[in-house]
Amino acid sequence: MPVVAPRGESQRGLLAALAAYTLWGFLPLYFVLLVGINAFEIVAWRILLTLVFCAILITVLRQWGEVGRVLRDGRLLGRLALAGAVIYVNWQTYVLASTSGHVLDASLGYFINPVVTILLAVLLLGERLGRVQWIALGATVVAFVIIAVGYGTFPWVALVLALSFGYYGFVKKDVGGRVAALPGLFVETLVLTPIALIVLAVLGATRGLDALSAPPAEVWILSGAGIATAVPLLLFAASARRISLTALGFAQYLAPSIMFLVGWLILGEHIPVARWIGFAVVWGALIVLSVETLRAGRRRP
User: Fold this and answer.
1) Among residues of the chain, what percentage have pLDDT more than 90?
2) pLDDT at 245 over 70
3) Top-ranked range on mean pLDDT: pick from 5-9, 119-123, 219-223, 239-243
4) CA dihedral 270, 276, 277, 280 (to 10 degrees)
5) Per-residue pLDDT tens for 256-271?
6) Rounded distance, CA 82 to CA 116, Å?
7) Which of 111, 116, 194, 198 is at 20 to 30 A from 128, Cα to Cα?
């Protein structure tokens, strides 16, 4: 029989999921405050500060033994290095989108993430699609064509974010049972540290580091990048252990919904008719996919 989490644990898990996705939804506003700093420099500092924040938490929680075990396991370390490389692409694309007026494209990327997960299952695991899944996949392709033709630009930001985060989730699911969230995130950022240092060195030598000449308020905001990165990820990990995948799947729509509203109502990004139609097609596909998910969940013992 499946193990059912106690009611209190399920409630805490749901609250953690809602908190994680709410923070992710408003995260573009955080990076908009850093618009005076080069996007590549922001991500480099984000990596280093996340590493420091995780190291402090690991010291407090006495999890260095777990970190050492991961570093000695070559296969596990390789998988986490791959996860780190993929999430670097995701972070860099996300920050570029947030600081260049493409928050709506970012929200589209996370809206189609469930469909990308289905596609990855087909390509990497050889799974077969059901009728509803084919409908969702086809609708997503149609939405991209509508946006590309009507808006005049292919939504590369959305595609890169969806593929990178989808594959990151695939890799993390593969190693999830063998490494805890905090040591895993520490190792991922540790692997990315040389890249961050190279980026800072190149930027410092060619154009100077913006953080060194930025207003004090902006520097203080940048210093919180490690906390802004790690806290939602750790909340997400806590929720995933306490609530069902179905509940977690529905909660994930919260982040792109908030992102969409932030881009539209707060940042004032323009939404032409083609983009409205494209989003409407994606939302329709997600409704169909969600209903089928609920039905499948009820059929299971």
Assistant:
1) 60
2) no
3) 219-223
4) 150
5) 999 999 999 999 998 9
6) 18
7) 111
Extract long-range pairs of 246-249: CB within 8 Å, 24+ residues apart. Answer: 246/293, 246/294, 246/297, 247/13, 247/14, 247/17, 248/17, 249/114, 249/290, 249/293
CA 245 centroid distance within chain? 17
Residue 205 is which amino acid? Answer: A
Letter string b/e over residues 74-86, b meaning 16 or more CB atoms within 10 A of that residue's CB: eebbebbbbbbbb
Record the tokens describing residue 69, joined without a space. Answer: 């075990």
Name every residue whose Cβ is closer than 8 Å to that of residue 258 and which is 6 or more positions away in sequence: 21, 22, 24, 25, 26
Q: Which of 21, 2, 7 is nearest to 250 (CA)?
A: 21
Tokens 């190291």, residue located: 55
Residue indicated by tokens 């169909």: 288
Query: Token pair of 135, please?
Result: 């409908």
Tokens 């777990």 belong to 66
Measured from the Cβ of residue 154, the count of other Cβ atoms closer than 10 Å reads: 13
258 within 8 A of 73, measured Cβ to Cβ? no
Amino acid present at 293: T
Report the distance separating Cα 143 and Cα 137, nearest Å: 10
